[in-house]
């Protein structure tokens, strides 16, 4: 399970993690906290579903959301950076996307998800296309986020 690997790497490196989730609705935080011992590295999470929550809780600039959209690379990056700084974590994860079945567009169809992983060394953002079934999009987004964390912590792992 990728959450166990991510937690093992965080523990081995004495690092902490915090997550900011939109389309996954707290699934990533749930998966991390399902593992015994997660409290040693997991600081907390924010489910920022509405744009107002992204702005108030994570410090995502409203004009950034207006310009690029809630589902965008800049928003995912700002979410990851914001949760990392606001919760004083070493690693921050931001996930925003269109889980469906509605809400997609030609530019950002259902299944479009942006995932960002932030650390003191910088922030990496991936755009992924994860299908059209809501539950599957959410699960795959959490999986991809965990894989990104593992790759950041252990570049030889993936």
How does this structure look, described?
The protein is of the alpha/beta class and 158 residues long. It has a single domain (2-157), classed as Maf protein (Alpha-Beta Complex). It has six helices and five strands. Strands 2-1-3-4-5 form a five-stranded mixed sheet, sandwiched between helices. Strand 4 (112-119) and strand 5 form a beta hairpin. It is globular and about 40 Å long. 46% of the residues are buried.
What attributes characterize this protein structure?
five-stranded mixed beta sheet, 42% helix, alpha/beta
* Overall body shape: globular
Number of helices: 6
Which homologous superfamily in CATH is the superfamily?
A: CinA-like
Query: Helical proportion?
Result: 40-55%
Query: Strand order, biggest sheet?
Result: 2-1-3-4-5
Mean of all residue-level pLDDT scores: 94
CATH class category = Alpha Beta
Distance between the termini: 14 Å
CATH topology: Maf protein
Number of strands: 5
Q: Strand pairing plus helix content: what structural class?
A: alpha/beta
Strand content: 15-25%
> What would CATH call the architecture?
Alpha-Beta Complex
Order of SSEs, N→C? HEHEHHHEEEH
Main β-sheet, in a few words?
5 strands, mixed
Summarize the structure.
By secondary structure, the protein is α/β, with parallel strands linked by helices.
Helices and strands in order:
Elements: H1 2-12, E1 17-21, H2 27-33, E2 42-47, H3 51-58, H4 62-68, H5 73-86, E3 91-97, E4 112-119, E5 122-129, H6 134-153
Parallel strand pairs: 1-2, 1-3
Antiparallel strand pairs: 3-4, 4-5
Helix pairs in contact: 1-6
